[in-house]
From TrEMBL:
Domain of life of the source: Eukaryota
Signal peptide span: 1-17
Coiled-coil stretches: none
MF annotations from Gene Ontology: hydrolase activity
Similarity field: Belongs to the AB hydrolase superfamily. Epoxide hydrolase family.
Lineage: Eukaryota, Fungi, Dikarya, Basidiomycota, Agaricomycotina
Domain AB hydrolase-1, residue spans: 55-163
Organism: Dendrothele bispora (strain CBS 962.96)
Keywords from the named record: Hydrolase, Signal
Name of protein: Alpha/beta-hydrolase
Amino acid sequence: MLLKVFAALSFALASLATSLPADLPPFNSSLFKDLNVTRGLVYHYYASPADAGKPTLVFLHGFPSTFYDWRHQVSFFQDKGYGLIVPDMLGYVGTAKPLDPEAYASSLISKDIIDILDAEGVHQSILIGHDWGAKIASRLANYFPQYFSSYAFLAVGYVAPDTFALPYQEQNNASRAVLGYENFGYWDFFSTEGADQVISDNLDSFFDVFFPKDTVLSIKDVAPLGALSDFLRNDRRTTPGDFVTPEERAIQMALLSQGGFAAPLNWYKILTTSIERDDNQGIPSENVVLKKPVFFGAALRDYLALAATFIASTLQNSNDTLTIQQYDSGHWVMLEVKDKLNADLLQWIEGLN
Ligand SMILES: *[C@@H]1O[C@H](CO)[C@@H](O)[C@H](O)[C@H]1NC(C)=O
Ligand SMILES: *[C@@H]1O[C@H](CO)[C@@H](O)[C@H](O)[C@H]1NC(C)=O
Ligand SMILES: *[C@@H]1O[C@H](CO)[C@@H](O)[C@H](O)[C@H]1NC(C)=O
Ligand SMILES: *[C@@H]1O[C@H](CO)[C@@H](O)[C@H](O)[C@H]1NC(C)=O
């Protein structure tokens, strides 16, 4: 009997994690599109047209994320008549999921985003990126500055071409010398064969530790070499942050589970091999310093993407007005401090020109 109840309960939880509502407000389901970009990969994206006289905002998500992470910004700016373009980045949900890490070179992904903007006839927009989306925003600024009037970086600031210039093992040694642990030791696990299955098999553990209430936890349970692998393989749990409701968490899990994690982990494999470093050789040196207005929303309780590091790199590479807002937040500023961030972004956008 007990077993039966337990089985029924597990089934209910499992179906919650795999079923998606037909509508995901504030996204209007008739405004999603697909585009087969120049290199023959299909991108799925949300495109809400701008009211006359309003600019278009382009939102790029990071890891482990989807278009859905921008729900609070879409709701806020859509109501005000701003145009919105919100893709699923390469490897995620409705977009193609190539398994070859080479496909994830930043220059190639940047060109994909430009193909979407061309298809939408948006030749001037405001670019907003979080996490690895901020890295792509940085590369778009390097390769295609003519498409953008300004850039907003969230949690991860401007990723200068030399940010991850050291070979991965040396980078681990360097951060261990400064911090006492490898700041990006979890990239090693992410680059290991089978890591995607470990994540899928321990999805609650993974979501707990990546969307935690107590972000200090990442210093011992995510960052050091071997730590994240141990945490997941032991299916350890921790209190999740209350900035994601249980319903939203179920939606995130269902979206990310659709395509699995093998493709998204390529965002890390390009950094633990030489792919990213080699690709960055093609960045025009005259575009390394940003010559447009920049907004950086720093997350003071993010212990992986350290606010101080990215404030420094963004400051060093901005040659127009720079607005820095520092939030009492972990990594997910667009969720954790959504109202403050939306208000600050609006004020910044209205003050441009
Ligand atoms: C969704 O978009 C379609 C197409 O533009 C529009 O006709 C419809 O009114 C929108 N729905 C809502 C709820 O805004
Ligand atoms: C996308 O384009 C490529 C060639 O450019 C083609 O091989 C592929 O079948 C297309 N994909 C879809 C889904 O149409
Ligand atoms: C990193 O440090 C370890 C331990 O001190 C050492 O064995 C290794 O050679 C170092 N690797 C690199 C690439 O510097
Ligand atoms: C920064 O801007 C100033 C004035 O517009 C210009 O003289 C200078 O060359 C620029 N520096 C860089 C590194 O682009």
